[in-house]
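Example complex used in Figure S2.
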Amino acid sequence: MSDLDRAIVQLRACRPIPEPQVRELCYKARELLIEEGNVVSVDAPVTICGDIHGQFHDLMELFRVGGDVPDTNYLFMGDFVDRGFYSLESFLLLLCLKVRYPDRITLIRGNHESRQITTVYGFYDECIRKYGSANVWRYCCEVFDYLALGALVLGASSELVPLGTLNDAAQSAMPDGELETEVLNSKGEVTSVTYRKILRSSSDTSTDTRDISPPRDISAPPGETPSRTGPAGTGATGDSSGSLSTTTGAVLCVHGGLSPLVDSVDKIRLIDRKQEVPHEGAMCDLLWSDPDEIEGWGLSPRGAGFLFGGDIVKHFNHKNDLSLIARAHQLVMEGYKEMFDGGIVTVWSAPNYCYRCGNVAAILDLGEDASNGGTVARSNGDYGRSNGISRNESMERRIVGPGRRYRVFEAAAQDTRGMPAKKPVADYFLYVPGEELVQPVIGT
Amino acid sequence: MSDFQKAFVRSQLARLPSEAPLILDEAEEETSNSFAAAHRDDDSSSASSASSVGTIIPSPGRNLFARSRGPSARQASNSLSWTDFYAQELFLEHAVDALHITHHAYITPPNGSGPLFVMHHGAGSSGLSFASCAKEIRTRLPEAGILSIDARYHGGTTIDSISHEASEPELDLRLETLSSDLVFIVTETKLAMHWDMLPDLVLVGHSLGGAVITDVAKRGDLGSKLLAYAVLDVVEGSAMDALQSMETYLSTRPARFASLSSGIEWHTRSRTIRNTASARVSVPSLLKEENDSSDPSRPWVWRTNLANTKHFWEGWFVGLSKKFLEAKGGKLLLLAGTDRLDKELMIGQMQGKYQLQVLPDSGHFIQEDQPSKAAQILVDFYRRNDRNALILPPKVGDMMASRAMEKGIGVEGRVGSANPFKKPLS
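Predicted assembly (870 residues):
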């Protein structure tokens, strides 16, 4: 067993690894990350995850629900640290997995992967508490500077393959069309589905939110692409979605959202990312912005980044041959939230955030498009690359969104373990002398 | 001459030697951990050199925030006059509910189209709590105005019954009363200053004051002039928790002081206020001298009897988080120490509903402990919310239209450069 494997075992048990080992790990991780572009290309199938925020036991629950590394290919969209009590273990485990299985896990940067933010929201204090010095925090921050800013998922299937066989009642009630989204609870039971109307009509989808409870084949390990059991729709075959005039565009993954300074994916590639997250500019916006029900751009109440509306998303997606933007950054009580006709989705993966918000979490599976015999249509966001081939008014290519399977899960019961006693209350209209806030010692 | 002014004069006359020499640990003031220290800005720590002047004559040129030149423990607890921090004071007459109130406020008017920062202090404090911070705001944004008020039963604000009954007016410190007072003061200030219209307003409230300005923002009484509001170090959830320990605290702090200097010393030594210059200007307004004192050796007592306000405490903070999130305008929550958000604010923060900033090295009195940092944050907050300066990128529809006209020339941003959509900042 290599040192790295041993470190993984130790971290999986939620025990920090010694400082020299952290140093070596961070060094290796940097060597690996420096080779990655600002926008990493990732081939489907992939499971996309949102904020983790040091909720280690919930991360374990995520792996249980989504499948383990390297069996499942993962993409984490940042905010690994801060607020939760195990930022250190969570981030180091993800980093170990990255170094051990570089092609099976992708980490991109969130706004909390920053020196300034971690100093205030817990990660810095946690490192001091667990190691007695800021060295480990410093090593980690150096890794933060090398994390990619986004990822482009290619080759996702437009159609979901149902995980199990539907029971007769559900089957007969199924409308015409292909399975577009499916929501599963942590037991692998389907709780709701939506179907896409069959091809070449408009892009409207019929929504079907009947509660379809079991019976499901929950013995199948989650995250493993099941063998094709035939398309869900009545007449739709796998081939139909792979016809010339239809293509699944790429999926752009980024922590926050869009920037007015970035009108193409290539603009992201031009950023000099190896630095602390700046207070403004393209890099800041990608990590801080939020979608909102507005037209155009708006001021972000966060004090950094922008708000962007549906028109901005549609335009950006169209221009860059994207079918979807997946992002994290905002707490959604239901774990995920699609906006703007499915043009953007927020994925949030920290259940019961901060041990008190009462939300569920979700991860997003995108399946592999096997219809072209595994050939991935490179859709890398090069604007105009298809000029002269098929882009004209009569043969407008129709980009359909990928089939989306959301796995919703709740907080792990054991994450309350090791929670510090209630923090000393602050005194609100007067400061109580002598009662400095004492940082609770945890995780020891 | 108000009681308040008398207090200053007396303090100067008394010139009591400070009992124990105050050990001024300069390194500790506006302290920080190693990291924050690295990018700490200038800062207002240390005793001032003002003391060679034994009077309270305003002299704007005085270098209040300079490092002290020489060991002068005594000077470190001398009072500083408000005149070094604000341009003038206002006395606004207010007859309401059979009461005659003279609202006292400090003001430095804005220049040109500058905004007016309206400050409301916390329970037991006064308008001078914002003195250091106000001055720092002005150095960063010279056109800004500051209006810092003394709430009822605080500082220089006086309150009498109109009727001739000798009975003391009944203590009213309900949140809605304080909110109405603030709106009245802002409106009256406009008249007193002969402004044609109100400048853009940024409300800033510390502690109880944070609850008041949030209530005012939610009520919408100041209309569209309200640009943004900032709440300093108060969160509904943890404030409610803290109420239980308030009485214990009140019973343990000294009830009286021998002099203003010893009052200042107590505040700095107990680290209630962690900045000597701030304490020197704010503490004198918290104390008053009793005429026929039961303890003549220690005649200075608290101006506001906080224990009597107990039955108002809960009412101040109930519903604060909800109102904070719902009111219109830019929102800033500035906390000291760590973030102690309650559930509602935690969700709001993680959904990006407001701006949160935490000053890890500050005590509860953020604006006094770290006046320059607090001022910088408030100025940046204003600039971001300034409607005149904000030019957002074009909407897609407009962009397409102009693109159709110019054929192919779109809006090309400079990648990675500074935000080009705002006016350059000075």
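Residues 200-246, 381-395, 420-444 of chain A have pLDDT under 50 and may be disordered. Chain A touches chain B through 58 residues (CB under 8 Å).
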